[in-house]
Amino acid sequence: MILVKIKRVVKSGASAFWRNPIVSLAAGLVMTVTLFMLGSLLLGSALLDSSLSQIKDKVDVNVYFRLDAEEEDVLVLAEALRGLPEVASVEYVSREQALENFKERHKDNSLIVASLEELDDNPLGAALNVKAREPSQYVSVANFLDESAALGSGGVSIIDKVNFNQNKVAIDKLSEIISAVERFGSFLILILAVIALLVTFNTIRLAIYTARDEVAVMKLVGASNNYVSGPFLVTGALYGALSAVLSTILLWPLAGWVSKTTGNFFGAIDLSSYFVSNLLQIFLLLLVAGIILGTISSIMAVRRYLKV
User: Fold this and answer.
1) Sequence-separated (6 or more) residues with CB below 8 Å from residue 50
2) pTM score > 0.85 for this model?
């Protein structure tokens, strides 16, 4: 008996959806814009995350050591840094490797090459290239280097220079960009969700007004409140389902166009391939979001305007 009632409610809701095609299309298009923007934010977030990851990999803190620093002391400090939860990786560059890297970078500068050949000893000290897990954690790494862990076996600091202050501007700017993007995305999704709720709310209100005589007859013959309000909830969910399909279709060419324009942007991902490989997940997410928005709007309209 329950299944029969559910079937009738769903059939009645679908009938109401197709009975007013202009109203349904209008509501569906407005919600499609909302879900399309939500999907665009998802794709934009994936693109931005990929780009920011590339930038993060280029940001690090370099620790340069005194020429008389013992290699054993440098390696001890490297192990201590690797033990920090904020540190993702530590690369040790020996004095010899530092010299080779310097020569490679300036191999086209004959004056520098000639100057190095005139020197009797290696003028470069060892170094550590430290990468933190998050840009905001470089402050903790810098503070650690200022403590006693940076002292050699003789109790004297073995560090010649740390370029944290030189990179601090870039690190802080990157942290600000990440935080701003996250805040903007959350705020925009909230605004779009409110707009979708209001539009669907007014659409269901119109549907309730149009079906007021039918509702009155149903109540006279003893229909329950759930049976009377059920079709309107189904109609709202159908608005969301239709919008999810349309927005997914529209996102496909958008992903292809963005891929062509951002293919070389900080080594960003191929957004078109990303969309295709995650098509099912994106569609299901938009479908669930659309159904939830449509159903919530319908519940609000039913409680406000349906006198049952």
Assistant:
1) 266, 267, 268, 269
2) no
> DSSP characters for 39-60?
HHHHHHHHHHHHHHHHHHHH--
Whether 59 and 115 have beta carbons less than 8 Å apart is answered as: no
Domain boundary among 130, 157, 184: 157
Quick one: how far is CA 216 from the chain centroid?
Answer: 49
Give the DSSP H/E element, type plus range, for residue 87.
Answer: strand 87-93
253 and 124 in a common domain: no
Assign 3-class secondary structure to 141-194: HHHHHCCHHHECCCCCECEEEECHHHHHHHHHHHHHHHHHHHHHHHHHHHHHHH
Tens-place pLDDT, residues 168-187? 666 667 667 767 877 887 78
21-58 and 164-210 helices cross at what angle (nearest 10)?
170
Place of tokens 């942290």: 175
Percent of the chain past pLDDT 90, that is, above it, reads 3
Amino acid at 51: S
Dihedral angle sign, alpha carbons of residues 158, 76, 145, 175 = positive
Cβ atoms of 137 and 80 within 8 Å: the answer is no
Name the residue with higher pLDDT: 39 or 25: 39
- Buried-state track 226-253, b at ≥16 Cβ within 10 A, e below 16: ebbbbbbbbbbbbbbbbbbbbbbeebee
Residues 260, 177 share a domain:
yes
Flag whether 147 is in a domain: yes
Host domain of residue 98: 67-157
Interatomic CA distance for residues 107 and 213, integer angstroms: 88
What is the β-pairing status of strands 87-93 and 61-65?
unpaired
Sign of the CA dihedral running 47, 39, 37, 252: positive
Amino acid at 165: N
Nearest to 80 by CA among 134, 133, 150: 150
Are 289 and 244 in contact by the 8 Å Cβ rule? The answer is yes
